[in-house]
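Fold tokens
===========
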Amino acid sequence: MSRKLKVTAIGNSTGGILPKELLEKLRVSRGDELMVYETPDGITLSPFDAEFARQMDVAEKIMRRRRNLLRKLGE
């Protein structure tokens, strides 16, 4: 699916309008939260998952604390 989205002013912020078809594919509606991920292929949108966000926070803390060990393992 490829769509052109318009970026517009929303109060003092800037936002994009998501078409109904995209909202249905994401299974979200007005007021829901989305996660935005930067990937090697570009940007990915997905519905916010509180449990996944918690797990990612834990993983990031471990990666920061064990940075040198992870670097050695990667060699």
